[in-house]
Design brief:
There is one protein chain. The chain contains 5 helices and 3 strands. The radius of gyration is 18 Å and the shape is elongated. With 129 residues, it is mainly alpha-helical. The two termini are 26 Å apart. The longest helix is centred in the last third of the chain and has 29 residues, at 94-122. It has one domain (21-112): Winged helix-like DNA-binding domain superfamily/Winged helix DNA-binding domain (Arc Repressor Mutant, subunit A). It is 61% helix and 11% strand.
């Protein structure tokens, strides 16, 4: 996502809007990070930073993972590490895979429609007028 900074005249509206947009996409992003296999919490955070430019704190991702687990979208298991402490790995359930597919379909349809709507806004010829 673009790094949007509001000016005092904007009354911070773009920052709040971007925060709400990110918040709405986090569940889908968390599920998508597990599509290819299990990961532990910090791996999920790093995966999202690398692949989506979402920068999250541990305090943000763990409540989402716990809620998704409670809803039956994820399973978790503690795995002993060769060095260090045990790690809690998360995996998608069949219900989680199904939900992610539905979310992805809705996202693609929604974002394609918005992209078409925004084409004139992003046209550099229009901006310079």
């Amino acid at each position: 996502m673009a790094n949007m900074r509001a000016t005092p005249a904007d009354d911070d509206q773009p920052d709040r809007w971007e925060a709400q947009l990110r918040k709405g996409a986090l569940e889908m992003a968390a599920l998508a990070s597990l599509w290819k296999g299990r990961l532990y919490g910090l791996e999920i955070i790093r995966f999202l930073e690398r692949h989506s430019r979402l920068v999250l704190a541990e305090g943000t991702i763990y409540p989402i993972l716990n809620r998704l687990k409670t809803e039956g979208m994820l399973t978790s298991e503690w795995v002993e590490a060769e060095a260090g402490h045990p790690r809690k790995y998360y995996s998608l359930t069949d219900a989680g895979r199904k939900r992610l597919r539905l979310m992805a379909e809705a996202w693609v349809s929604f974002s394609q429609g918005l992209s078409q709507l925004l084409e004139p806004v992003m046209d550099t010829k229009e901006i310079s007028q």
